[in-house]
Inverse folding.
């Protein structure tokens, strides 16, 4: 009795599982949806997608959207782009937007842009509706030494033909900043820049800054110009301070050399005085030797003393010393 009851249940369960497996392997509902939308995709193609590990909805539904928009796309091309790692839905939406905006964009080019890592749908939108990017604060110095700080707004439009291999927004901003610095630096005075700030945008715009980039510059507008520091005065002050330090160092060097020369001269004079004192110390010894040897008598010594006293007196008179001088002791 139980076996008779379980048999129909197992048959129903097996039938349901089989239908689910069949629906996964053969997406009948997706095929009916494609046929009703007049998208050319066969049931065999859907089964082949399953075998090639391609998600049928990720390919068929963008194909249906393209067919409804009037774009004749080949399902094999969409499947190949999916297998290459691309975003099929984004590429198809970009193709539809480009077709509505009358922008020439073949499928192969859109697929190449997508595989290059760029958002092709956003690129089409920027091509239709240009966007504005703002530069950071760019500081430059005019010829009179006054610093100016400018901010520019750059209106760009995507260039579809240069999206692959073209530089991005960072390059545009860097080139615009370089042009602002060059234009302000060539101005004679900062007042001329403040009086006519649009001269900056005109000069920068004529330099062809968008060459080699994925964008086309439509306009460059100076949003703000502020006066910064007086760089020229600061540089002159720093130079004067440096010159002052150099002069002080040289004067200190000359003073040290003069002091060294003076010390050397003092040492030389002291050395000469020592030599004189040493020589004078030899005189009494020589006189004693003269007395002992009989070369000098008492009268000779008296005459020597008289001459020495007379010389000392004359020296005192010449120096203006009126005090009585004692003869040197024997």
């Amino acid at each position: 009795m139980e076996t008779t009851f379980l048999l129909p249940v197992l048959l129903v369960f097996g039938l349901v599982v089989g239908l689910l497996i069949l629906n996964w392997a053969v997406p009948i509902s997706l095929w009916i949806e494609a046929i009703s939308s007049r998208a050319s995709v066969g049931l065999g193609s859907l089964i082949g997608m399953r075998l090639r590990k391609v998600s049928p909805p990720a390919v068929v539904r963008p194909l249906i959207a393209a067919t409804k928009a009037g774009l004749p796309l080949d399902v094999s091309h969409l499947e190949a782009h999916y297998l290459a790692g691309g975003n099929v839905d984004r590429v198809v939406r970009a193709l539809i937007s480009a077709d509505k905006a009358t922008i020439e964009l073949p499928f192969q080019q859109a697929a190449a842009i997508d595989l290059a890592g760029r958002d092709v749908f956003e690129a089409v939108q920027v091509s239709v509706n240009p966007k504005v990017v703002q530069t950071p604060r760019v500081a430059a110095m005019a010829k009179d030494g006054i610093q100016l700080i400018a901010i520019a707004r750059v209106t760009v439009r995507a260039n579809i033909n240069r999206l692959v291999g073209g530089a991005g927004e960072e390059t545009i901003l860097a080139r615009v900043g370089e042009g602002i610095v060059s234009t302000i630096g060539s101005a004679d005075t900062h007042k001329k820049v403040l009086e006519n700030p649009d001269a900056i945008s005109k000069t920068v715009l004529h330099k062809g800054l968008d060459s080699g980039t994925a964008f086309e510059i439509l306009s460059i507008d100076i949003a703000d110009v502020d006066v910064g520091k007086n760089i020229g005065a600061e540089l002159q002050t720093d130079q004067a301070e440096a010159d002052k330090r150099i002069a002080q160092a040289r004067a200190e060097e000359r003073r040290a050399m003069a002091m060294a020369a003076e010390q050397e001269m003092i040492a030389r004079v002291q050395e000469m005085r020592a030599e004189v004192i040493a020589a004078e110390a030899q005189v009494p010894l020589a006189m004693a030797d003269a007395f002992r040897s009989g070369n000098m008598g008492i009268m000779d010594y008296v005459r020597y003393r008289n001459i020495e006293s007379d010389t000392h007196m004359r020296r005192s008179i010449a120096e203006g010393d009126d005090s009585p001088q004692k003869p040197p002791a024997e």
